[in-house]
Amino acid sequence: MGKRIGIIGGGAAGLFTACLLKRFSANDDIEVTILEKNSVPGQKLTLTGHGRCNITNRKPVSELKKGYHEAENFLYPALKEFGPEDTISFFEERLGLKVKEEDNNRIFPVCDSAVKVRDAIVSYISDRTEILCDTKVTCIKSSEGFEVSTSRGEFNFDCLVLSCGGSSFPQTGSSGDSYRFAESLGHTVIPVRAALAPVKADDDSQAFTGRLSGVSVTAEVSVYCQERKTASCLGELMFTDFGLTGPAVMELSREIPSDITGSDARIELDLVPSMSDGEFDSGLQSLIREHPDTKITTLLSRFVPASVALGISALAGVADLYSQGFTKENRKKTVKAVKHLKIGIDQAPSIGKAYVTRGGVMLKEIERKTFGSKIVQGLYIIGEAVDIDGVSGGYNLQACMSEAYLVTKDILNLK
Ligand SMILES: Cc1cc2nc3c(=O)[nH]c(=O)nc-3n(C[C@H](O)[C@H](O)[C@H](O)COP(=O)(O)OP(=O)(O)OC[C@H]3O[C@@H](n4cnc5c(N)ncnc54)[C@H](O)[C@@H]3O)c2cc1C
């Protein structure tokens, strides 16, 4: 009998592990079983990339690693061993899915279908992997190997891959079980919070964002906690009824503390990031001189979309004013509204709406060259379950793939 390998969770990380175990093993030396609680595997995978699946990102690994925040050095060996080019080759040559590159080095399948990606993976592994769906794992015990209790009875494995996800998008199945199992096996879990999530504004700011709902702008977005700027980035954002969303805001959402209350935190938007406050003020003054009979809102629409100009000038209390008689004080208020637009936040971003989870199984307890547990022999922990989250753009699926390779390499004793 071959080595019995149990994979807990048939999401991206679990499915990728089954793929690479098949790809790199000789015929009958392993028995692979995926235990998945949903009736179909890979539910979150089918939602990725707005249903198109942003598989990976073609940046050089030395650049790519910077997208994993505090975990960049931890993940580097995995990315070096199995990087974007390896993922692309695997998809094209083994899964038969040709890929294409889009902006910012993002890689998608040519078919533009995350469901087809999931189906191709399931079809690839099905002859070498038993996929047991509707099988919820309830308890894991380790002694000689692993005893796994499920809604469909007991299973025994020689080694175990814990890949049942994080806490984000729980409707896809990832409801935090990884953490309970890891803790029951002696691991420490760093408290989880949202990453890559939309941000809900407080009631006052919602009145503003709601009026601009659906409007997208490019801005410098900054997070302030107790009046201290803690993070910022330049990119696209969208105003919504509830607050803000879009790449730049989602990117920064992980920096908003999970325990904020009242007016502890805010987001500040610079809607004309290409100019300093002084340059913007001078630019506005020149326009005022050139167009003495024009409404300020009209002049502002030279810098920002017309709907935003309207909202901003109302906020600054200058919406009905014309260039003539526009005072220095009025200009000051306008510069503040355009370059330092404050959006109040009175609650942390929701993990339920987050694309990924920040926090998870502590990296110090995981061997970075194998993703094996330093606490339990034969246990591997990968995917969103561990304390790694990447920026958007294919980084999170690539992390799952690179980690799955290290696990495969260790289990199969590959050189
Ligand atoms: C809307 C959305 C879009 C995204 N788009 C992208 C993208 O384009 N590119 C990218 O790189 N990343 C993207 N991500 C992030 C990416 O999907 C995740 O990083 C990745 O799915 C994590 O894989 P995982 O296997 O760790 O967890 P999951 O994919 O969540 O899989 C965990 C699996 O474990 C199962 N499970 C949980 N508990 C149990 C249990 N007790 N017993 C048995 N099974 C269990 C779950 O049902 C689930 O199938 C996106 C995420 C979301 C939510």
Number of E-type strands: 19
Identify the CATH class of the largest domain: Alpha Beta
Q: What is the assigned CATH homologous superfamily of the largest domain?
A: FAD/NAD(P)-binding domain
- Poorly predicted ranges: none
Can you walk through the features of this model?
The protein has 415 residues and is of the alpha+beta class. The chain has two domains: 3-194 and 356-411, FAD/NAD(P)-binding domain (3-Layer(bba) Sandwich), CATH 3.50.50.60; 198-349, Elongation Factor Tu (Ef-tu), domain 3, CATH 2.40.30. Helix content is 33%, strand content 24%. It is built from 14 helices and 19 strands. The protein has helices at 12-24, 48-51, 61-64, 72-81, 84-94, 114-125, 177-184, 203-211, 247-252, 277-290, 296-300, 306-315, 328-339, 395-411, and strands spanning 3-8, 30-35, 56-57, 99-101, 106-109, 129-132, 137-143, 145-150, 153-157, 159-162, 189-195, 199-200, 216-225, 228-239, 243-245, 265-270, 341-345, 356-361, 379-381. It has a six-stranded antiparallel β-sheet with strand order 12-15-14-13-16-17. A five-stranded parallel β-sheet has the order 6-2-1-10-19, sandwiched between helices. Strands 3-5-4 form a three-stranded antiparallel β-sheet. The protein starts with a strand and ends with a helix. The protein binds flavin-adenine dinucleotide (FAD). Flavin-adenine dinucleotide binds at residues 8-14, 35-38, 43-45, 47-49, 53-54, 136-137, 163-165, 168-169, 172-174, 177, 355-356, 383-385, 394-397, 400.
